[in-house]
Amino acid sequence: MRKPIVAGNWKMNKTVADALKLVDGIKQQLKDESKVDVVLCPPFTALAAVGEAIKGTKIDLGAQNMHAEKSGAFTGEVAADMIRELGCHYVILGHSERRQYFKESDEIVNKKAKAALAAGLIPIVCVGELLADREGGKTEAVVGTQVRGSLAGLSANDMLKTVIAYEPVWAIGTGKTASPAQAQEVHAFIRKVLKEMFDETVAQSVRIQYGGSVKASNAKELFGQPDIDGGLIGGAALEAQSFIDIVRGAL
Q1: What is the pTM for the complete model shown?
Q2: Which of 76, 113, 142, 146 could be disulfide-bonded to 127 (CB atoms 3.0-4.6 Å)?
Q3: What angle (nearest 5°) sits at the alpha carbon of residue 237, between those of residues 18 and 36?
Q4: Known catalytic residues?
Q5: Which 3 state secondary structure label does DSSP give 88?
Q6: With the CA atoms of 69, 106, 116 and 212 taken in that order, what torsion angle do they form, in degrees rounded to the nearest 10?
Q7: pLDDT tens profile 229-238
Q8: CB contact set of 134 (below 8 Å; sequence gap of 6+)
Q9: Beta carbons within 10 angstroms of residue 55's beta carbon
């Protein structure tokens, strides 16, 4: 039985003071939650403060990105060991915004995933198609290519320490959501690809989150699908009660 995982991706939002207010609200109801893995992914600037604030709770800390190299002349970048030192256990990699705005390829995401695993982090590897891909019947071709490229060279053991997030790009921040049936179909397809790449055990063990305009009103139905193991939540994670209600939808 796969344990649901709900992660809040705060993106480029929240000063440290704002972050601590949000964490305080979330902690009140989720600090002892044991049936769902709850992960908060604030901006780099708030990682230390949020990490300190969730000490002693069951809530985990994640970063939104990292560089593939351990150190070097990469101005503005942050390495896996640096975020691990701040108490991060998770890191989001290959989010569609990173792929779109920062031109991250599957190869770059793959290097980052390997570096994250080597540092003892759990990568949340994001995949998802554009609206044109969906309308052109290319969803499986695009998502399959991203899964294979982003996870190339990982071992079965690596995969058991990896989370995948399926986020249809057309549903992120748009208010449009893949129907539970549409989302389930792609999640099942991703498991099929994992079986081809690794084996049935890996395919059935890896947790696959859904992301894309998830809210309290649709979380339970989405998370109730057989191959959906929680969510990677954007806008709805920026308000405490909204995020709490979504986590409850995974119970």
Answers
A1: 0.97
A2: 146
A3: 120
A4: 95, 167
A5: coil
A6: 130
A7: 999 999 999 9
A8: 168, 170
A9: 9
Q: What share of the chain is helix, strand, coil (3-state, %, to 5)?
A: 45, 15, 35
Residue type at position 207 = R
Q: Closest by alpha carbon to 194, among 220, 166, 173, 222? A: 166
- Contact 171/213 with Cβ under 8 angstroms? yes
Q: Which residues pair with 166 in a beta bridge?
A: 127, 210
Task: Give the pLDDT confidence of 173-232 residue by residue, as tens digits.
Answer: 777 778 999 999 999 999 999 999 999 999 999 999 999 889 999 999 999 999 999 999
Measured between alpha carbons, how far is 62 from 59 in angstroms, rounded to an integer? 10
Quick one: tokens of 202? 């890996």
Q: What is the mean pLDDT of residues 143-168?
A: 97
Q: Show me where the domains of the chain are located.
A: 5-248
Predicted confidence at residue 174, as pLDDT, reads: 79
